[in-house]
């Protein structure tokens, strides 16, 4: 097997880790590259000609769940993973009409639909070494031959009876397939696992809370702010860590020079924070681990004693930025808690932390301690009754569902944001395995200005918003930035838009048939032309919040969301892959 | 063990109904039992999937007058006791039958909104 392993290593896309190197026009992993910049060096589509963009192809996936994530494009083939039941399509981009090469239909347990907290979504696949690797919702990871569509291996990684499901996109480093569970609303004991790319065999499991031996916090562990042993045990009371949530459902990044894998962790469970006194490490944190053995190298907690369901599963974008005159290896993260963080990705030190949307739960982030200065009147808990006007809402100042993009040409980050606030009334919750473990009622309202979302450009060197495009609804779409100085994003009411990366002027838009919660990509087709692809298919949290966007079940008719009563006027569920070109 | 319950919404092949048991709610119409049922609904985390007030969340609305698996008392009891596909847990192993009937009584006590089937955006 040795020569085979060397071949795999050579095939990995090391080059262009920050999107500045050679671009082969493909899209092989969720964030485009290991740095997760979602930046393409393709230049055929520009701010000057994007107004001529037109749809060249569309395809119904036949599935109505929220179409999060993104397609992949490899060797003239587009790969699309659907929401449950997680069909994998392989489209031949070299043929007229892009007919299917094959279609893989896995056996997925329907039980997963109700164990997943928030619609039966999937966030996409990862291509490497001739394999398409992705997760089935019911707690399995599969590897499929990218040429034949044959299943190569299937490994159970999660346990639905404990509330674990697996909609996240795996991330492959060297020969390690890194996966994690959802279940922050089910009181899971969150973890990350590494599987062997060749066989699917489990190599390591690293928990996000609990004793150092389970968290894999050994001699290598040197957090910048926190000191001492057993941090992820002592910051919980009793055995609360065993049902404390801390899922891994977002995006991962990797720095090959530092050999560090970065990912965010989700909320602490239950939402009633009085049932889990302490900082609850490492909930709502970023963890830096060695991919080889999972060893924890550093960790930083964005929201200690998380009170508001502020998951930190959003992407960690790895770029080198000049901060106060000094070039730093940074990690940029837009947290649900409303702050944008620029960290030193070598150490975990906070370099910049500024709000990118309305924030009322904290006044600022203290640079000396790395901790937020919390407004104690916004703390929640069953004894505190209904705590009003907390911003952002638990949907986040930015949802982790919608990863940002970074353009090295403009030096700016392009970010889907929400302008929602909430009231939060907590109540005691009982942990019953396999059922939700929440304990809160959290109605939403629009933040200042009345618009519920905005697509913004952000300068992470200083922590400043450069421009914004206001949207009537929360912006739930990922984005892509290109060397043509165009950025793309979608809206919940079903528009796919292109904007000038420098000015924020909307240059083009098209109604795609359903609200957008997916992530756009751009690629060079076999004909040499540049294309842009996006999923339409509203869902995810919007399946829950605006239950009137569904029309497929006569036994489930719900009133509209009180804070967004008109959303269903503009969209209903769908599942469409769109491709646009000049 | 509850008896097998027949759904009268199903088509009977040949027009002949198969034999089945019957289940009747011992708390039907009992307001105190409905209040107990609301508390059990929250304590058992039913609201985590079906939403506060059972208005619908990841799981369907239970107060819209529509039922996937039949809306008779016995059918709703069966749904809670044995669970259903697509993630409805089986509560029969941890809940006494009286507790399940009180949840059924709570759901039955909720008014069915009259304006749900038609959403209108123009005057």
Walkthrough of the structure:
The complex is a heterodimer of chains A (about 575) and B (about 120). With about 575 residues, chain A is mainly beta. Chain A is built from six helices and 39 strands. A five-stranded mixed β-sheet of chain A has the order 1-33-34-35-36, with no helix packed on it. In chain A, strands 2-39-38-37 form a four-stranded antiparallel β-sheet, with no helix packed on it. A four-stranded antiparallel β-sheet of chain A has the order 3-4-5-6, with no helix packed on it. In chain A, β4 and β5 form a beta hairpin. The termini of chain A are far apart. With about 120 residues, chain B is mainly α. Chain B has a domain at about 30-110: Cytochrome c-like domain (Cytochrome Bc1 Complex, Chain D, domain 2). Helix content of chain B is about 35%, strand content about 0%. The radius of gyration of chain B is 16 Å and the shape is globular. Classes of the chains: A mainly beta (about 575), B mainly alpha (about 120). At the A-B interface, α2 of A face α2 of B.
Keywords:
heterodimer, A: 582 residues, mainly beta, 5-stranded mixed sheet, 4-stranded antiparallel sheet, 39 strands, B: 123 residues, mainly alpha, Cytochrome Bc1 Complex, Chain D, domain 2, 4 helices, globular
